[in-house]
Amino acid sequence: MRRCSWRIFLAVVFGCVVLGQTSVLRAQAVAPKDTGVKIDGEYGPFLPTDISVDGYQVDRLINVLHVFMIGLFVGWGLFFAFCLVKYRQRPGHRANSVLIKAKPSKYLEIAVAIFEAVLLFGFSIPVWARVKSEFPTDDPMRVRVVAEQFAWNFHYPGADKKFGKLNPKIIDLVKNPLGRMDDDPAGKDDFVSGEFHVIEGRSVVVEILSKDVIHSFFVPVLRVKQDAIPGMRIPIWFKTKEKTAGAYEIGCAQLCGNNHFSMRAVMHVDTPEQYAAWVKKVTAPPEEFKED
Amino acid sequence: MAQHQHKGGGHGHDHHHHDDHGAGHHELSYWRKYIFSVDHKIIGIQYGLTALCFLFFGFSLMMIMRWQLAYPNKPIPVIGSLFPSFFPGGAMAPEMYNAFGAMHGTIMVFLGVVPMLVGAFGNYVMPLQIGAPDMAFPKLNMMSYWVYFCGGVTMLASFFVKGGAAQSGWTSYAPLSVITQPHQWGQTMWLIGMVFLITSSLLGSINFITTIVQLRAKGLTMFRLPFFVWAQFVTSFLLLLAFPPLEAAGILQLMDRVAGTSFFMPEGLVVSGQMQSYTGGGNPLLWQHLFWFLAHPEVYVLILPAMGMVAEIIASNTRKALWGYRTMVYSIIFLGFMSFIVWAHHMFITGMGQKMAAFFATTTMIISIPSVVILTAMVITLHGASIRFNVPMLFALAFLPMFAIGGLTGLPLGLPVSDIQLHDTYYVIGHFHYVVAPGTIFAIFAGIYFWFPKATGRMMNEALGKVHFVLSFIFINVAFMPMFFQGLAGVSRRLADQTGYAHGNAVQGLTRMSSWGAWMLGLSQVPFIINFFVSMFAGRKVSENPWESTTLEWSAPSPPPHGNFKSTPVVHRGPYEYGVPGIAKDYFPQHQAGAEA
Amino acid sequence: MDHSHADTDKHVRLYLTVFAALAVGTVVTVAANQLHVEHALAIGIALGIATVKASLVAAVFMHLKWERSAWIWSTLALCAVFFVVLLFIPVLETSEHPPNVVVGTWDVLPEAHTEHAGHHE
Amino acid sequence: MSTAVLPYTVEPHPITRLYSGKLGIWLFLASEVMLFGALFSSYVLLRVGAPVAGPAAWPAHAETGLSWKIGGFNTLVLIISSVTMVMAWAALKTHNIGRAKAYLATTVFLALVFIVVKLTLEYIPKIQAGHTPSHNNFFALYFTLTGLHALHIIGGIIVITYFIGPGSALWKTDPEYFTNRVECTGLYWHFVDLVWIFLFPVLYLT
Ligand code: HEA
Ligand code: HEA
Ligand code: CUA
Ligand SMILES: [Cu+2]
After folding, report:
1. How confident is the model at residue C8 (pLDDT cuts 50, 70, 90)?
2. Does the first or last residue of chain B, that is N or C, have fewer Cβ atoms within 10 Å of its Cβ?
């Protein structure tokens, strides 16, 4: 009876793994849906493609941590398994009531603490400082990203590199989604698009706004994520690597309502020529405010 | 047993003189005995059954959601056609997905696990373990159960009001949770329900602390307390001091929704192109601070009593004293204290400056150390033991590596830089489910199997229990392990359909695997449910100490009568004196006088 | 607390003294407020006096002066610590954003709402 | 054998020196400190972070129309009620239940005065003047903070009234227990007074 039930368990485990595997394989063949654009980059069960100059720092920290975690877990698990087997209850065996003095555990705990300190002060804090305050000075592109339920608006300052003023009262979802003011000279050459275009190899400063609720600007291939908080303009920056031209995904990472799941946009990393062509296209009069 | 409660009232101090308690009393009516009982054991069982129902319900919501995740927009088999008003066309609309998700989180945390760990196990076991006749304030105890019950009913009712249940996640971030005002009542009901639940927890925690401080048996010093009691003690302080800020936040959000104030609303909110009438001047991040000021301590409320139960079960089934008991106690106190100053690690991505991020990352790293210490102590206890692999022990043992996976994956989330990529992805979902599901839920199962004979006088079936364990262990991992890979791939949480994203589509197979894991996990609970109800009436009868344990609850009859102990217990030794040399039996109960060596 | 009648009489006298002190404190707070000193200073004075008054209430009316239970004192200490932690929320939120974060979504502030406009006298 | 089922409801525990109710009420007050603490901290955040101009700006003190006279009067009323509360307890200590009841009744009366003044001279005129909670965050906080405080007062009124009426039966069977309960109620009452001592300058004066 007992042996039989163990066999059933094993069969179930096996079946489950097979089930899991086949469904994994099957799904990878399915093409991305309805973006209209073919998305570049490689995606799978680990970190996706990285096209930003600083993204490796995030990846490195994640990788180092996981190696550490797996090492700790395996070592710890081996000891655990050893105890389970060696000290199982059986006739003639009695627990050793003399408490062992486990010095190694103390060293292990101290080692863990030291390692965490190294990760914190060696990896995390400096990188965070760089990401948060060392804004690029090499003439970055400037774009303003305005989130709303359930779309991303990309506001470009145009040739004068100055953003025009925004006024919420004159917002018109079709003609003027951001409430740009006509009488503001700085805003004369601005344009707004539902697509995000940046130039490869050039740093970009993005100012993130939200009109209604909290969203989160997430570009997986850039290792960039920043909440868009209404009532705040939060700048972030990144720089794409050379030779990364292509189309990538932008997602919303913060629950923002019914269509949160579909609040996507496409980031086009352009060569300078492609970019110029695109700007020309969007600023051509009739198309100006068309979205989507 | 009969009892009188005529003199009470007001503040819930209870006090009554009993002449010859025990015999010769008229029986109380059914209502007073089982429904509005003030006996901590009955209240514990009420909490336990209610919480199990909520756990089951919360899990069912999630099993339905997992269909939408695995097979987006396909009609849900059976359920879809049973509830056409919930699932138009048999499939799950995104707003329904959001509602179910928010309610799953809320129900699991506030209506399932906390009432189970604190309300049920805390209430039932803790007074027995300290040798008390009851809780310090029995009427207050009854009240906290009924307030909890009202909170639960409010939450459940919110599924049926206009606009359906709350849809802003269990975190209810403003402004999303506020702007739904005109057409959604669910969020308001959620807030009112939370106020009930918070009140209930506050009453409970006051009662727990007072009981532990005042009613310990003679000779039971603080450092002779079972670890479980310590865990309850620290947990109660977390509930006592962390919940009120959420109550405050809840009141503010209610005002925003009902009275049109702008506590969390900045100026110039534009929804669908329409300027809103809020005056503005509020701050959405204020809600997050107040919420996480509770919710981080809350997650330790979810784990500390679980650790306590596991420690009890491990000590009893290794036939050994817990290794490093004192260190564990200091660790858990430290853990409780630190849990108040890490809350903003949930907010790294909100636009936080360097100093603040560094501070909260540091405290987060520090708080992981006491967890490591406690876990390590429990594992070292296994060394040199004589391990009995009974069902409670299996669950307790499984708790250790599962919690380790959950805890370790908290580290990348605690460092702001790695959190950039991982925040709000399935990695977070994986992290905390490993701590709460194979962690806490397993500890709950372990506790049920372990204390069931105390509460009913009957044993649960061992074979069914083992089937339950093995299946649950396998499938809970099938359900949650894929989430880490989904998270690394960049799939955000709370997506009703991830296949629109290329990175989501690439790991859709993992999603399906996870769903199958969850459904099989659901099936794996069948042996448990059968076992639970059948054993209640037909289980093998056992004596008062079937596990041959040392702590006080095992010296009371099974089930313990009103007043708990046949004679007032006196404690002579520490909680885990197993295998004491010179003693014939391999355990030496706390209440037994006798040779100290 | 257990004390004799004589003790109680002494207490009663103390209660009345404290009452006088509280009344005076209230008057002083109001008076100081009429002085039109600098705003921050005014807040400081008012909160300072309030703290003194609150301490008196806690010490005498709430009997903390005579309280010798370590449990109550530790609960209060814990509570005090976390109260201070709570007060860090506004400190963090108003001072600790990275450089360049701007408060306010829009360049043009909305004006008074029509529904409220009439009430600004 | 005549034992209380639960020890230490009346006599203090030999080690902790507390009867259970007293520890319970202090724990409750600790949670209240955190409740009002969170609201206080919200007040600071919203005030410091308020826009400098526009409808959402923090109103200048004169604009709020809150009268320090009414506030000051209510402050005194509450302080006196605290004194009468503690006197009631002292009367019980000298076994004078009649005097204690008179003091308790005075306390309730003063509490009612507080509520009535608050309602008729403040809430109603404010709302009629359009200074509703949604007017701006100052009034939102004003109504929330004082409203919550008023709820505490009402709770206190109910409990104290109970001890004057049906609750006082306990005096005959167990005077010491009754005294303890009044002491606990007093602790709560003084705390409510203490909260007001902070609310008054924060809302009415600055
Ligand atoms: C029971 C619940 C529980 C527990 C115990 C924890 C424990 C921890 N959590 Fe978790 N957490 C949650 C529940 C929990 N968490 C929930 C519910 C959320 C999401 C909320 C939401 O957004 O909806 C969350 C989210 C969350 C975040 C935010 C993520 C984000 O949104 O971006 C972070 C970030 O720091 C974090 C960190 C941690 C850390 C560092 C621990 C540490 O305490 C863990 C410490 C433990 C260990 C380190 C393991 C012990 C190690 C071993 C046993 C092996 C080593 C052995 C030897 C050395 C011998 N958690
Ligand atoms: C304590 C907390 C807890 C617990 C135990 C669980 C348990 C489970 N959770 Fe939950 N979950 C949350 C808290 C919890 N969850 C929270 C807070 C969120 C975030 C919500 C949000 O986004 O706002 C979340 C979100 C969440 C998601 C993400 C949804 C999304 O982001 O879109 C998923 C996805 O799979 C999920 C799955 C599961 C599964 C499969 C279980 C399973 O492990 C369930 C296992 C349960 C059992 C095994 C119980 C069995 C009980 C019985 C059988 C009772 C028997 C009855 C009697 C005897 C009477 N959960
Ligand atoms: Cu926008 Cu989610
Ligand atoms: Cu946390």
Report:
1. confident
2. C
Tally C-beta pairs within 8 A across C and D. 151
Confidence of residue A99 (pLDDT cuts 50, 70, 90): low
**Structure ipTM:** 0.92
A224-228 and A203-210: which strand pairing?
Answer: unpaired
Distance CA C36, CA C29 (A): 12
Give the model confidence (pLDDT) of D105-164 as tens digits.
999 999 999 999 999 999 999 999 889 998 889 999 999 999 999 999 999 999 999 999
The candidate with the shortest Cα–Cα distance to B194, out of B327, B123, B294, is: B294
What does the pLDDT average to over B556-578?
A: 89
CB contact under 8 A, B356 and C78: no
Q: So what's the pLDDT on residue C116? A: 39
Question: Would you say the CB of residue A263 lies under 6 angstroms from ligand 3?
Answer: yes
| Backbone dihedral angles phi then psi of residue B594, each to the nearest 5 degrees | 140, -175
Instruction: Give the number of whichever ligand sits closest to the CA of residue B435.
Output: 1
pLDDT exceeds 70 at position B181: no
Q: CATH says A141-283 is which class?
A: mainly beta
Q: What separation in angstroms does the CA of B537 have from each of B272, B411, B445, B461, C98?
A: 59, 46, 19, 12, 64
Using the predicted structure, report yes or no on whether residue C120 has a pLDDT greater than 70.
Answer: no
State whether the beta carbon of A265 lies less than 6 angstroms from ligand 3. Answer: no
Residues with CB under 6 A from ligand 2: B 52-53, 55-56, 59, 62, 66, 101-102, 104-105, 108-109, 113, 169-171, 302, 429, 433, 436-437, 441, 476, 479, 493-494, 518, 521, 525, 528-529, 532
Alpha helix segments (H runs only) across B215-283: 227-258
Of the candidates A93, A226, A256, the beta carbon closest to that of B176 is on A256
Residues of B near C (CB-CB distance < 8 A)? 213, 237, 241, 245, 266-268, 275, 277, 279-280, 283, 285-286, 289-290, 293, 340-341, 344, 351-356
Please judge whether B340 and C116 are an interchain contact, meaning their C-beta atoms are less than 8 angstroms apart. Answer: no
Determine the pLDDT at residue C1. Answer: 45
CATH code of the domain made up of B37-263+281-555? 1.20.210.10
Q: Which of C100, C109, C111, C113 is the best substitution to test chain A (most A C-beta atoms within 10 A)?
A: C100
Q: Which of A31, A56, A6, A278 lies closest to A156 in space, CA to CA?
A: A278
Out of D9, D31, D159, whose CB is closest to B10? Answer: D159
* Per-position DSSP letters for D111-139, written without gaps between them: HHHHHHHIIIIIIHHHHHTT--TTT-HHH
Q: Where are the domains of chain B?
A: 37-263+281-555
Nearest to A260 among B357, B495, B512 (CB): B495
Q: What is the mean pLDDT of residues C4-29?
A: 85
Q: How many CB pairs under 8 A join B and C?
A: 50
Please report, to the nearest 10 degrees, the dihedral formed by the alpha carbons of residues B452, B454, B455, B459 taken in order: 40
- pLDDT-based confidence at residue C115 (cuts at 50, 70, 90): very low
Q: Where are the domains of chain D?
A: 67-204
Residues D55/C20, Cβ–Cβ less than 8 Å = no
pLDDT tops 60 at residue B92? yes
Model confidence, pTM: 0.93
Strand-pairing partners, residue B425, are: B492
Q: Ligand 1 pocket, B73 CB below 6 A?
A: no
Domain ranges of chain C: 5-118
Cα distance between residue D68 and residue D73, in whole Å = 8
For D202, residues 6+ apart whose C-beta sits below 8 A from its C-beta are: C46, C47, D40, D43
Contact residues, chain B, for D167 at CB < 8 Å: 9-10
Mean pLDDT of A126-131: 88
- Domain D67-204, what architecture? Up-down Bundle (1.20)
Q: C100: distance to nearest CA of chain D, Å? A: 16
